[in-house]
Amino acid sequence: MLTKVIAVANQKGGVGKTTTSVNLAACLAESGVRVLLLDLDPQANATSGLGVEKLEGGSCYGALLGEERLVDKIKPTAFPRLELIPSELDMCGAEVELPRLEQHLRRLALALEPLRQDPERDLILVDCPPSLGTLTLNAFTAADYLLVPLQCEYYSLEGISMITRLLDQLSGSGANPNLKLLGVVMTMFDGRTRLSQHVVGEVREYFKDKVFDTVIPRTTRLAEAPSYGKPIIHYDKYSAGAAAYEVLAQEVLARLRQEPGLGASAEPPG
């Protein structure tokens, strides 16, 4: 049974994409799921957000070129059931090098195949760069599901049609006809403002039940946690941000259980 791959992506930066990748991965791991987080973003914020050092040669760059094995890049984290493939600056070169290779949009899918067949883990989350470049398209081609964080601001609405159009293109071109939108999660929600409530309403009207019930609040503690190299659930377990990501993790698991292929070991304890 293949390990499922979820790409966490939005072509716009500053929407809480890496915050969602790190904290969702940590909350899934805390609930009993064995998770591998793959940092595909050259900025490597997910790497530092889990307290892992950015080391030269530590990223998946060589594996994408076919020169190394992806399994050799896996690093443990300080958190049970959560592993990481770090990123670092050499990933900037991948945007230049990959288009020169054969099957350049399938390089990540090919590199991930041995890990997908390995029963040691239940889910692989991919933190994508904030663009629709070669690396992000590789993630989309390799993934089973797409999870889209959307900031509760007006400009987020402009990116909605681009996401659905891209999904249609990937399906129509045959690059990944099986890619599904797992869901849209609204981030940086401020319940005191009409704008946040308006944006959530508009997105729910457009995406219907694809929008997660959970909204992620804009909080100081969520913003602080990465500087300590900890997900929010380990930095401040009783904060509003931790509670939100714990509930989101359960929503994600519930949706995955409606699809075939999630192993029994991914069932949360109790």
Write the topology of this structure.
Blueprint: E1 4-8, H1 17-30, E2 35-39, H2 45-49, H3 61-64, E3 75-76, E4 82-85, H4 91-97, H5 107-116, E5 123-127, H6 134-142, E6 145-151, H7 154-158, H8 160-173, E7 180-189, H9 194-207, E8 211-217, H10 220-224, H11 232-235, H12 240-257
Parallel strand pairs: 1-5, 1-6, 2-4, 2-5, 6-7, 7-8
Antiparallel strand pairs: 3-4
Question: What is the structure about, briefly put?
Answer:
The chain is built from twelve helices and eight strands. The chain has 270 residues and is an alpha/beta fold.
Spatial strand sequence of the major β-sheet = 3-4-2-5-1-6-7-8
Assign a percent range to the helix content. 40-55%
Q: For this structure, what is the CATH class?
A: Alpha Beta
Strand content: 15-25%
Largest sheet: 8 strands, mixed
Mean pLDDT over the full residue set: 89
Helix/sheet category: alpha/beta
Estimate the global geometry from the Cα principal axes.
Answer: globular
By DSSP, the count of extended strands is 8
- Give the CATH topology: Rossmann fold
CATH architecture assignment name:
3-Layer(aba) Sandwich
Structure annotation, total helices: 12
Tally of individual domains: 1
Terminal Cα separation, in Å?
24 Å
Stretches with pLDDT under 50, minimum 5 residues: 261-270
